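Protocol step 6 of 9: fold each sequence in the batch and record its structure tokens directly after the sequence line. For illustration, a two-sequence batch is reproduced in full.

Sequence one:
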Amino acid sequence: MERITGNVMAAIAAVLLVVFIGMLVWPMVPAPSAGQLQVHPAAASEQNTARGIVVAVLAQDAGAGEESGGRAYEKVLVRVTTGQRAGQEVIIEEGATAGTLAATPLVRQFRPGDEVYLQWTQGPQGEKVLITDYVRDKPLVIVVMSFVCAVVLIGWRKGLRSLVGTGLSVLVVFLLIVPQIIAGRDPLAVCIVGAIVIATASAYLTFGWNIRAHAASAGIVASLVITDLLASQFVDMTHLLGLGSEETGYLLANFGPGIDFRGLLMGGIIISALGVLVDVCISQTSAVFELASTDPDLSALELFQHGLNIGRDHISASVNTLVLAYAGTALPLFMLFALYEEPLIRRLSREPVSEEIVRSLAGSLGLVLAVPLTTLIAAGAAAWQVQRETGLQAKLLSLLQQRKHWQVGDLAQTLGQSDGPVEAALAELAERGYLKQIPGTCSGDCAHCELRLGCLVSFGGKAWSR
């Protein structure tokens, strides 16, 4: 049984390694030219934009009067700071008179010194310049650095590793997923590949290259496959086209009808659920292995039962987090549809609302199923590891009884192991009382060591006896 389980875990590790290498090589293979998306000519034209800084506010009306209709009005003087027009000063009107802002109380109120983005457009009355947005690079840097500092100060090494994982996730999204979709590849397949890269990297950054990471990665990959099948089935059942968001209109304008919007929707479900899914799978794996370490006598079935009890508590919190995250992003949409005087079932049947329902529930269902699946894989792996370590410890005790003194390298060579597992097994034997530390420090020179008469084995700079 031990040999079979070991072969299975070795096969899983090998498959994960091959898949990971394949995913790194796959983007290098050119996509079929017929599938590549063609940018719409209108979208490909050069945008006449630049950055500027507000020099002065020439006129300002908060919109309280009846003449303004409740809309604010503002006239500002802006100096262009980049591009061919750098150094020029332009007067820009916004609000009730200019008609560039909607009737909303949340109106931009510019102040001298504000950095803004400018855009020149051609209209019936000639060229016109507009303020399209604030320049937010400096505030965003402050926000990001605050997050980074908090994670590092509180999490230390683990926090730093989590930041590496977050950075890798961002790189995968923007350097792998998005370019490959634009290159014409299937959006769902690209998102699955990107999700596997992110998930496996997170597992190995958390645990290192060991049996825990293999088990967590296997659980994550299996859960992603199940979530993909559920998302595909639910999207087909509800006849969703993937056109329920405002962004799809911009994509249609830029790329035309060549994009697979249903594939984008299903791929988005995978990526959206990925963060919580990785968290649950890694937590379950860690919990099961800790149970096995605390009580090595637990069988794989008992580890599964105890781990599942822990996972049930995790499920309720994680599913609630996922549903609320989706509800928060779609809150303006829900408010909009609440205004329609129509039956509730009709509101729910509208594609934008149905998309959010399918998105949240497909991800949540995949998350729920990930708990028993990952717990099962982790329980089998942990039981195998305990059985393997117990066998190694028994062999070590047998060898220690046959000879007066051993060094770790000799033991490892005799057992056909590397030094690391042997030292770990010796440390476990010492913790369990089978070995006792001899006062003093091991010099490593056994021939001239004063402790050699009573020393049975030396490791970790210390000498040990029975």
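Sequence two, same batch, same settings:
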Amino acid sequence: MQHATRLRGSRWAARGLCCVLAALSALWRPGAACPAACTCAGFRLSCADPERSLTAFPALTEPEMENVTDIYIANQSSFTSINDRDLAFYRNLRNLTVTSTRLTYVSRDAFQNNLKLQYLNLKDNNLSSLSWRVFRHLNISYLMLSGNPLQCSCENMWMKQGRGEEAEAELLCVEEGGKRRSLSTLNLPQCVVPTVILTSQKVSLLEGSNLTVTCKASGTPTPDLKWNISQLVSKYKIVTSGQSSVLSIFHLSSLDNEFKVICSAENIAGESEATLQLDVRFPPTISKLMDAIPDHHWCIPFSVSGNPQPKLSWLCSGKPVEEGEYISTRIHDYSEHEYHGCLQLDSPTHVNNGRYTLQAENVYGKDSKSIFAHFMHDPWNDTTATDPSYYDDTPLGPPQDRVAVYVVVGIAAVTFAGFVLMLVVLKFGRNSKFGIKGFVLFHNVPVEAVGR
């Protein structure tokens, strides 16, 4: 018996070990796709063997690439570029090092899918230039570029102040004659980062008004002007001439309240932008007023919009609701330009039953909506109720369901009583003449003896 138990236990232990190994292999299977020139351990991919040079990033299976957070590539003489799709499936990549290779080109869309990238080390490669547009959508904290033959060109001017929290030796660039100089002191007369100016930074207008905004830019080479207003609800028109652009917005919508109008300018040296925030004033609108719902407290939910924020008040059956410790208006959230909250009632009684009217008002207008709320039966006038109870519109189950409940409860009670009786017999039967011992002896007496 013990041998069988030990055998069964060993089988369960073996199965558990297999499950753990399967889970670990699901996270990373180095033998399945890891290249011979690399080592794959945990969430790190390292390729530093100079004898087996890579020409591109390893193409693992898609799930494996999504698990990788760190890539280290070094001493690869055939590694020359980072192209558009090379890192497309390394979506969780945080740290990337490509050093001591012949890297000469980085595509503008190389890190398009690597939004979590924070550390980028491209030291000691063959880069002569690197556009700022490669990193425009990233929030990189550390960018290492020293040891590259960077040209003293306009395309590299952004590196003077755009390398995050990099703590390395001073970055050098190569002039036409081959002389090296500090990039931080480089000044090129035909290379100026753009500046942008808007006619105003914030406007307050009534809903339905028209608005005209002018954006002016300067920089060398001549920058390209763009408006970032794709999410604007109101109708608009743009007229651009040279380094000046005029945006005309017609019939301002309340849905554009707090919208940020962005004008940006960019050239090879860098980019800059200016922002205008819209403050659209409009009267209140109650978009939602729902039936009272019981929770920790009773709540009558509502959603209200309006700018400035509307003042809210309540009526119950035509009379003002006095708010205090037990009845109060609570705003829980502000989203999508609406205030979401509820009228909270703590332990309401039949006195609080009635038609509730929400009134919202600001300087531009007002709105109101009503809902009927029933919290408790009236114990004095409601002849249909046997006792006061909170209102519940959930229908009762059919009669047979209630009978079944009674049967189950009865069976449980009988079982419990039998269990208690058994405990009593076991407790006191040992000292009784007709207790358990007598009962056992009685069963050992032959049937013939009992017949006598």
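Proceed to step 7 once all outputs are recorded. Observation for sequence two: The radius of gyration is 39 Å.
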